[in-house]
Amino acid sequence: MSKIINSETLSGAFLSLLGLATALYANAHYDLGTIREMGPGMYPFVLGLLLAICGAIIVGGSLVGMVKSQTISVDFRALFMISTGVLAFAYLIDVVGLVGATFALIILSNLAAGGINLVRAIILAIAMSIVSVLIFGVGLGIPIQMLRWPL
User: Fold this and answer.
1) Do 96 and 53 fall within a single domain?
2) C-beta of residue 128 within 8 angstroms of C-beta of residue 106
3) Is residue 44 part of a domain?
4) Is residue 121 part of a domain?
5) What is the pTM of this model?
6) pLDDT bracket for residue 21 (50, 70, 90)
7) What would the pLDDT profile of 70-79 be if each residue is shown by its tens digit?
8) Is residue 24 domain-shared with residue 61, that is, in the same domain?
């Protein structure tokens, strides 16, 4: 099920929400200080507000019709499956290690496209798992469990 949405309106709204969330988080978790003696939260707070203002300007221009824009089709199934893949990766990285989490991410993300070729998805998942181990484990030496059996 797809819904037609103005791309500038959607982008501006996302930027505004991201900016507001950043500003609120900085305000709640860091000391803002004063203008003369800025605390560690001042910079993310101000940048978050500026991002929210820029997003609001984009939304306003889009709604007024100042911007000639294309409409985009949002595929909610793809959005859901990709988000599920990312969440599964975040959960599984501690449970089964990098290889299993990467494998799950690739398989779930491939379900976002209709008519999945299972053999192709498995080959891609194996290849990306190997690449992940080579980059993060061997190349960068990140101390992360590569493969863990949860039982």
Assistant:
1) no
2) yes
3) yes
4) yes
5) 0.55
6) very high
7) 666 777 888 8
8) yes
State how far the Cα of 5 lies from the Cα of 45, in Å rounded to an integer: 30
Polymer length in residues for the chain: 151
Q: What are the tokens at 99?
A: 């290889």
- Position 80 in a domain: yes
Q: Indicate if 9 and 56 belong to the same structural domain.
A: yes
Identify which of 15, 45, 51, 52 has the alpha carbon closest to the alpha carbon of residue 28.
45
3-state secondary structure of 3: strand
Pair of tokens at residue 133: 């181990």
Confidence of residue 5 (pLDDT cuts 50, 70, 90): low
pLDDT of res. 69 = 56
Number of structural domains in the chain = 2
Q: Is residue 128 a part of any domain in this protein?
A: yes
The predicted model gives 38-67 an average pLDDT of 86
- Sequence letter at residue 96: V
Which residues form the domain of 132? 75-139
CA Rg, the chain, in Å?
21
